[in-house]
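2024-03-11 09:14:02 INFO worker-7 job=invfold-0412 stage=load source=structure_tokens
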């Protein structure tokens, strides 16, 4: 996918005029690209359009008009745009109860390194961004990259079952990807 550039970002007035329609489109796209793994872990598979939206919303929220500030957001979020034979996803730890969240976060360090995808007999582990887990605590948001092997891609294109899972001791799960998500992820690789 093409990287996001400064010229892709709408100015505040242009964006405000389009925001309602853009927001509806992005919420529908996120719904297609979200995959709950268990009762508290969710993957959101990133795409250029969703990353653009994140940057656009940050620029709006912070009332950014200076190009250098917007470029800072592009530098921060731009790396989430997948490229080549990879998927990128954000792993969310979603526990609305504050007391339970505080209880669980110390149990989940390394969760970002325990995520995987399987297609047929081929498996690929996710690479988590360093610095989001300490020995005794983890962040509620992790950025993941999945480098897909040629064998995995061949199985995916041939229609083999696709699943995503977690092998962490306190968060084990494996779920089949719905056809709508599979189509989205295949489309990312083809275009």
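2024-03-11 09:14:09 INFO worker-7 stage=emit residues=191
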């Amino acid at each position: 996918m093409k990287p996001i550039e400064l010229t892709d970002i709408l100015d505040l007035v242009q964006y405000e005029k389009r925001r309602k329609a853009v927001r509806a489109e992005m919420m529908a796209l996120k719904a297609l690209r979200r995959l709950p793994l268990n009762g508290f872990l969710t993957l959101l598979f990133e795409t250029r359009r969703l990353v653009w939206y994140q940057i656009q919303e940050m620029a709006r929220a912070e009332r950014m008009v200076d190009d250098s500030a917007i470029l800072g957001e592009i530098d921060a979020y731009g790396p989430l745009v997948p490229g080549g034979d990879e998927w990128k996803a954000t792993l969310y730890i979603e526990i609305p109860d504050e007391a339970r969240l505080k209880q669980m976060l110390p149990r989940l360090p390394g969760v970002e390194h325990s995520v995987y995808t399987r297609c047929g007999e081929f498996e690929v582990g996710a690479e988590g961004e360093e610095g989001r887990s300490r020995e005794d605590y983890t962040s509620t948001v992790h950025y993941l990259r999945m480098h897909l092997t040629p064998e995995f891609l061949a199985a995916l294109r041939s229609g083999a079952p696709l699943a995503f899972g977690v092998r962490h001791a306190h968060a084990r799960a494996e779920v089949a990807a719905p056809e709508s998500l599979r189509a989205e992820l295949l489309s990312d690789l083809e275009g």
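2024-03-11 09:14:09 INFO worker-7 stage=report msg="The beta strands are 34-36, 41-45, 86-93, 115-119, 122-125, 127-128, 141-147, 162-166, 173-176."
2024-03-11 09:14:10 INFO worker-7 job finished
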